Amino acid sequence: MKTAITELFGIEHPIIQGGMHYVGFAELAAAVSNAGGLGVITGLTQRTPELLAKEIARCRDMTDKPFGVNLTFLPTLSDPPYPEYISAIKEGGVKAVETAGRSPEQYMPALKAAGIKVIHKCTSVRHSLKAEKIGCDAVSVDGFECGGHPGEDDIPNMILLPRAADELKIPFVASGGMADARSLVAALSMGAAGMNMGTRFIATKEAPVHENVKQALLKATELDTVLVMRALRNTERVLKNKGVEELIEIEREKGGSLKIDDILDQVAGVYPKVMVDGKMDAGAWSCGMVVGLINDIPTVKELIDRIMSDAESIIRQRLTGFLDGTGRSAAPARAIA
Ligand SMILES: Cc1cc2nc3c(=O)[nH]c(=O)nc-3n(C[C@H](O)[C@H](O)[C@H](O)COP(=O)(O)O)c2cc1C
Fold this sequence. Notes:
- This protein is an alpha/beta fold.
- It has 14 helices and ten strands.
- Helix 2 runs parallel beside helix 3 and helix 3 runs parallel beside helix 4.
- The longest helix is centred in the C-terminal third of the chain and has 25 residues.
- It is globular.
- Bound molecules: flavin mononucleotide (FMN).
- Flavin mononucleotide binds next to strand 3, strand 8 and helix 9.
């Protein structure tokens, strides 16, 4: 399949793996890139720019295909040295960066001077237009369904994607709630040139996370995520667990006066406990509603091949069937898995 996104990043399939804290290591990024998508290393999971340089080199050893690095500008408790991270990306010869959180405006000159394509993750049309204006090459339009930070507007992708299509000139991928061929074809129909997946890629053989995490994703349904930190205007969609229940209880007690310090135990330092140690009740970690569509743990290549071949059948048989009349009584499109 060829779209503006496959052309932009020099990849075979219009599928991007979003940056994921403590998940987006070289193993996963390389597996996605080797399968024809765009794998992404999560920059800030590497505690220093030197460690990021090593992670990029490790990924380079595992794939000769293009891959990217995610740079997240979120309110963190530390203040990461972003210019040095960008130097590590540039010196590592990486040509794609996924930015997220705040606008990447101040870093655009450095990124563009290094010939890096920038895809900025946005949760609104106005932020997407700003990204276009400051020279981003593409945007990742992240709907309310998404795992992680959906912003504060609460607009799901059925509305957000066509709205983005109506306003943007640069290409965009659909992000949030994407799991299979149905997601991809729907996203393409609504104007996107591909899709970005987060949660779905965690439930793959290559995702370098504790087995408990993958099993929790298999078990969970679409009813098992919840929004936290709304009072801080730093809303995050996470998987429910005991730590998250405590967090919600504190939020209830504190109401509008909630401070980050009130919930540090439930939100700070949680990722290594969950992703490395498999302690599933440790606190808040991002997970999308799409968890309700995850029923297996394939290899990344099996997942991507399945998405692309099912997408072809949906387009050639199901959709064309409606047009030529042969598909009138077609059953709902089930996931093959
Ligand atoms: C465990 C996890 C960690 C994430 N960490 C980050 C991150 O560090 N930076 C970022 O920009 N997005 C992060 N995200 C968001 C993803 O890149 C992606 O935008 C999101 O998962 C898409 O929604 P989906 O989960 O419904 O596919 C994370 C998502 C998950 C599930």
